[in-house]
Inverse folding.
């Protein structure tokens, strides 16, 4: 058992998989230049030294090419693990992800498949609107892609290893403020936690119950799972007991765990840093309403980023993305219904 | 004049060119008659590009095509039945009816699913080539694209990557002078939109008469040798012309008549046939026999495809994710 940050847990996962399977390789801009950072967030730093620069590719700043090379090499049996530096750049490679990676298996009638991993650092962190988005909901809308969002070091290792072994394109959303990498960021949360040395994977589609409770079910991912936990502590003092569920993977999504929780609580709150309109919470909320409306004692509440680009000024940024206070406020209202 | 191939190869090339020509003609009529669903982008007039480039590839080499894939697929060895059934949306289609006219292909013979996003196949081909290199295989991939695709960002990004990593990929621009209805002269200031840009990536390039299958084949041989030998990519720009419209709705009224005449007079199939006769590589009788056989193969494939079963409707929900086979 080692104490690792998410950044180091991801690194360990990639390294273990590269040792296990010679077809796994990683690539990205500034992936591991000696003396450099190892991507933008240290995850791939040092991998070149162990695996050589033929398996750790420092690419040009060419996102279309980066994604396309993943698609092509994956179809030929390789298992590329690409790093995008900032998830916002996903839009530069949209064609390759959505029209190519996601559709190759289907269009070929099941003759080819695309086992690739695209790592997308996400979340607001005082960098302004183009280095801030939480885009995971976007990609949940595309059949053929899997979407995961690890928020603890333990999960980061297990989910990343599973992503690399998965035979389909997997987008991994990693929150910048959860990496816990050496370079300290304002508002960062320490995710240092125990990570077993053994070879474990975490199956996709299995949510984690972070905290048990009986009044409100809060489903929250990435940074918001931590905000929800903080809010739950405060609410506990007021006699409101919250169960916090981290879905961990959005495609596939573990509805069962949410339903089981609602059977106890009858109240559902969904919290994400992604914007409100058509965020993944809208899908979860409507699915519950369609299938289990009689479990609910009150309307579903969604707490999400306001529908604006992420502003720079820390006071504005904090206002736009859900805060602990907003969650507490909404929970109190929900209990009054 | 180019060096002549031996008789077997010459006839083999002619067979493929004639197959493509007749296949496309038949598809055209099936569309006109309203028998076939979907859309078409035909390669009639560009047969020498496909056959000249692909004839010397091995089965385990790869090919990446575009929205105009039939010639490439047939030359790479996708079965006629598989193609025809795919056009009819049938279960026996090369993509089990899930691909359609713009996505034909069959990895069993090294033909990737064709790509209907202009420029979409360029980085994918680089990735395929990177995999060959990483796996220390001596395979190569030929990646076709149109003149119009050279104005896509993916073109620039892919050429640059292929060059820096010395990838075993041959990028083949079929410059048929138009992207859909727009003359390439309106959208690129270079006379050779692919080859002239090659210098920007330090990739060797060649401009070749794309209607002369022997010249195309010569250029292909050099590029394949380079790629197999680990010397990296080549850009080949083939000057050619499509005989029909861009797609099924295009009456093609934007092309000057004298330009059309100039190119139609240089019909790649007819010209190669003339070469075979004049050099005595084949007799009239031999060619007629080949042609008849191909025509009856096509009849047979249409008959088969029309009577073949459609896919089970449940299959529409399968293959979204790979479940392992
Ligand atoms: C990204 C993209 N933009 C536009 C189109 C629509 N479109 C299909 S084919 C075509 C023309 C392509 O011209 P070219 O690359 O020269 O190939 P050709 O059709 O001449 O073979 C266009 C504009 C498309 N399929 N993909
Ligand atoms: Mg063209």
């Amino acid at each position: 058992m080692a104490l690792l940050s998410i950044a180091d847990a991801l690194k360990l996962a990639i390294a273990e998989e590269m040792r296990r399977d010679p077809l796994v390789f990683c690539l990205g801009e500034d992936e591991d230049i000696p003396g450099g950072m190892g991507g933008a967030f240290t995850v791939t730093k040092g991998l070149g030294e162990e695996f050589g620069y033929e398996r750790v590719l420092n690419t040009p700043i060419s996102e279309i090419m980066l994604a396309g090379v993943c698609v092509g090499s994956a179809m030929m049996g390789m298992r590329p693990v690409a790093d995008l530096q900032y998830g916002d750049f996903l839009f530069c490679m949209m064609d390759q992800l959505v029209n190519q990676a996601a559709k190759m298996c289907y269009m070929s009638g099941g003759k080819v498949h695309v086992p690739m991993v695209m790592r997308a650092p996400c979340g607001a962190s005082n960098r302004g609107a183009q280095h801030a988005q939480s885009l995971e909901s976007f990609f949940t809308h595309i059949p053929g892609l899997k979407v995961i969002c690890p928020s603890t070091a333990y999960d980061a290792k297990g989910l990343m290893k599973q992503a690399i072994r998965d035979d389909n394109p997997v987008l991994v959303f990693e929150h910048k403020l959860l990496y816990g990498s050496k370079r300290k960021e304002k508002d960062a949360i320490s995710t240092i936690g125990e990570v077993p040395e053994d070879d474990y994977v975490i199956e996709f589609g299995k949510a984690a119950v972070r905290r048990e409770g009986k009044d409100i079910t809060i489903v929250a991912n990435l940074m918001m799972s931590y905000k929800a936990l903080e809010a739950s502590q405060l609410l506990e003092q007021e006699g409101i007991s919250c169960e916090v569920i981290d879905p961990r993977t959005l495609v596939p999504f573990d509805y069962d765990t949410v339903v089981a929780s609602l059977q106890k609580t009858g109240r559902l709150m969904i919290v994400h840093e992604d914007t409100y309109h058509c965020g993944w919470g809208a899908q979860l909320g409507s699915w519950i309403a369609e299938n289990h409306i009689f479990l609910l004692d009150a309307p579903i509440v969604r707490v999400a980023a306001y529908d604006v680009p992420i502003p720079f000024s820390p006071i504005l940024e904090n206002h736009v993305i859900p805060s602990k206070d907003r969650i507490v406020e909404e929970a109190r209202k929900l209990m009054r219904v | 004049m180019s060096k002549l191939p031996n008789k077997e190869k010459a006839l083999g090339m002619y067979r493929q060119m004639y197959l493509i020509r007749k296949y496309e003609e038949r598809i055209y009529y099936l569309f006109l008659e309203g028998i076939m669903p979907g859309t078409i982008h035909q390669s009639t007039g560009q047969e020498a590009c496909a056959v000249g480039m692909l004839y010397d590839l091995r089965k385990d080499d790869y090919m990446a095509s575009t929205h105009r894939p039939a010639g490439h697929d047939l030359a790479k060895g996708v079965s006629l039945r598989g193609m025809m059934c795919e056009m009819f949306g049938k279960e026996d289609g090369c993509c089990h009816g899930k691909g359609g006219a713009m996505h034909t292909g069959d990895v069993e013979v090294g033909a990737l699913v064709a790509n209907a996003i202009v420029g979409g196949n360029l980085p994918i081909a680089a990735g395929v080539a990177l995999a060959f290199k990483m796996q220390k295989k001596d395979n190569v991939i030929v990646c076709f694209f149109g003149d119009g695709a050279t104005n896509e960002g993916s073109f620039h990004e892919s050429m640059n990557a292929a060059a820096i990593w010395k990838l075993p990929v041959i990028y083949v621009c079929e410059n048929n002078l138009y992207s859909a209805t727009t003359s390439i002269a309106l959208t690129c200031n270079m006379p050779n939109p692919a080859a002239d840009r090659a210098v920007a990536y330090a990739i060797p390039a060649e401009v070749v008469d794309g209607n002369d299958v022997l010249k195309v084949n010569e250029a292909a041989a050099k590029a394949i040798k380079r790629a197999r030998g680990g010397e990296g990519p080549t850009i080949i720009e083939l000057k050619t012309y499509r005989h029909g419209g861009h797609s099924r709705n295009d009456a093609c009224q934007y092309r000057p008549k004298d330009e059309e005449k100039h190119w139609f007079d240089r019909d790649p199939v007819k010209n190669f046939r003339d070469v075979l006769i004049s050099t005595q590589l084949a007799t009239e009788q031999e060619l007629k026999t080949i042609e008849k056989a191909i025509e009856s193969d096509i009849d047979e494939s249409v008959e088969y495809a029309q009577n073949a079963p459609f896919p089970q409707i449940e299959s529409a929900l399968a293959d979204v994710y790979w479940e392992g086979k």
